[in-house]
Amino acid sequence: RPAHRLRLGFASCSLCEWQRHVEASPLDPYCEVSVPYLFGGLTRQSPIRQKCLEIRESSKWSSFFLIVTVSNIIYIGLAPELAAAAEAQGFTTEDGGVTPGEYFDFVCVFILFFEIMTGVLAYGL
């Protein structure tokens, strides 16, 4: 066995392969160009794509997205009862008016759309 061979885990590899493994980008397992229809696509070296991957792998962002999802689920489940209670108390909006609950729903949809888009930009289609 040559002296320049190293043992990593269960498989052995040469020094050059080990250096490539160490210098590898976190985006290497994913497609070369993400979203090719958007300005010609985002390569693995793109700062936008790397930031999206950082957001997707962050536990803080994952927790934030989970809290938004759960709170939106709770709002959707309670919305009919909240609307009926508001109407019974005399808190009605004029026809076509947007209620504060609907604003909350719009914000949740925007945040969840942001979560999906960071995943698409980071991992590709």
Helical content, roughly?
55-70%
Q: Give the CA-CA distance, first to last residue.
A: 43 Å
Q: State the order of secondary-structure elements, H for helix, E for strand.
A: EEHEEHHH
Number of helices: 4
Strand order of the largest sheet: 1-2
Can you give the mean pLDDT?
Answer: 76
Gyration radius over CA: 24 Å
* Classification by helices and strands: mainly alpha
Query: Could you tell me the number of beta strands?
Result: 4
Unreliably modeled segments: 1-22
Strand content: 5-15%
- Report the sheet with the most strands, covering strand number, pairing sense and barrel closure: 2 strands, antiparallel
How would you describe the shape? elongated
Features:
4 helices; mainly alpha; 58% helix; two-stranded antiparallel sheet; single chain; 125 residues
Give the helix/strand layout.
Elements: E1 5-8, E2 11-14, H1 15-22, E3 33-34, E4 42-43, H2 47-57, H3 59-88, H4 100-123
Task: Tell me what the structure shows.
- The chain is mostly helical.
- It has helices at about 15-20, 45-55, 60-90, 100-125, and strands spanning about 5-10, 10-15, 35, 40-45.
- Strands 1-2 form a two-stranded antiparallel ribbon. A two-stranded antiparallel ribbon has the order 3-4.
- Strand 3 and strand 4 form a beta hairpin.
- The radius of gyration is 24 Å and the shape is elongated.
- The two termini are about 45 Å apart.
